[in-house]
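Reopening this one. Same input as before:
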Amino acid sequence: MSMKDEDDKDLADSIEEVLESAARNLERHPTHGHSIARMNDGMGGLAPLQLEERRLIHREESVRRQSDAFREIRTRLLGIAGQQNFVTLVVSVSPRSGASFVARNLAAAFAFDEAKTSLLIDCNLRYPSQHKALAVEPLAGGLIDFLEQPALGIAPVLYRTGIPRVRLIPAGKARENGGEYFSSHRMGTLLDSLSSRYPDRYLFLDGPAIKGSPDARILSDLADFVVVVAGYGRDTPAAISQAVTNFDPEKMAGVVFNHLP
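Same output, byte for byte:
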């Protein structure tokens, strides 16, 4: 597939359409400034037991230790960024080190704050997993479907997750190599449009493992921060050090050690 610059206007227009729709909804239910944090999910959200079955943190005492760990990562990212919202890429050193687990729970931790919203985007095109983990049926497709046909609009591929203030854009069509998509101007325009309009929206990109794929490095060019996930007892110190060298030191937020895939 060839990504053509002349299609960028169609992309921007389709993104603008869904954002304008959200703005009209805000006019009917006004909030402070250009905020979407109090958006109506149209559902009560999943019960704590359902969240635990999906390996998701929540506010109850049963997962307090895990929730506090992700809150700490949230606090550190916010401390680095100051008052500005941002795009965070979460990638693992090697496959099955748990980057997808960290990405969705980090998105959930940000959404604990009722003044913030999270958008999780599955950018692991070879092994997409977020829609399965969140029990989302991507009937309208996902990221790749939108990038290939932006005229379809972004709204159909924004899925509720059962977590208040958290939305998912699944990967969509499986692809062996995402480099052509992620390095396209169209992808950059998408992320800029999704993040710039609302100051309370935080984007989390679930990327492929660093080892064996250039996609993680390509995606880092689109992110403000990079969080590297190392499998505890799986990835050696040498492998972790080598993985970190793939990214701009100014974007490196830190390394998270994860016990489970």
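So the earlier flakiness isn't reproducible anymore. For the record, The first helix runs from residue 8 to 28.
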